[in-house]
Amino acid sequence: xxxxxxxxxxxxxxxxxxxxxxxxxxxxxxxxxxxxxxxxxxxxxxxxxxxxxxxxxxxxxxxxxxxxxxxxxxxxxxxxxxxxxxxxxxxxxxxxxxxxxxxxxxxxxxxxxxxxxxxxxxxxxxxxxxxxxxxxxxxxxxxxxxxxxxxxxxxxxxxxxxxxxxxxxxxxxxxxxxxxxxxxxxxxxxxxxxxxxxxxx
Length: 201
Prior knowledge:
Layout: E1 6-9, E2 12-14, H1 21-24, H2 44-47, E3 70-73, H3 85-93, E4 97-100, H4 105-113, E5 117-120, H5 123-134, E6 139-142, E7 147-150, E8 153-156, H6 161-169, H7 173-178, H8 181-194
Parallel strand pairs: 2-3, 3-4, 4-5
Antiparallel strand pairs: 1-6, 6-7, 7-8
């Protein structure tokens, strides 16, 4: 998993509440188990018309927001079914940070497992940041200091220390397991010695 330290980007603003995972990546695109290739179908029903043409009035279809790495969203983002394809699609599009006032729990945790930083802020703080999207000005997210820098201002955000460590060090669930490989090997040796019948064919 790619390490997350800090990033600068013009944020894309999607002021829609209760964006569920089917809106993020519709069910017809869930056939793959690959984490790549889903970005083109992110927010598919909002980005394309019935003929598959890009809708010019959708924020992620317009410059410079088609290159945004930060998405500012409405509250209860990522609700609905627990598909991990939702953060995969965001990440494949290039979005590595989402800012909202609240998230569905499963989506929130899936973001950390896939290298995306989901930040929780108050509504008034989100409104203030959204002005930088409207003005097409960059903001900076610094995970190490847990701050968002915009203009001459800054906002602090909270994050679980363990989740912060995983993002900064680029550790997903597999990498966390591999860190304990020596302990796992030692345990297996002890089991083979004390209970050899477990390993009999």
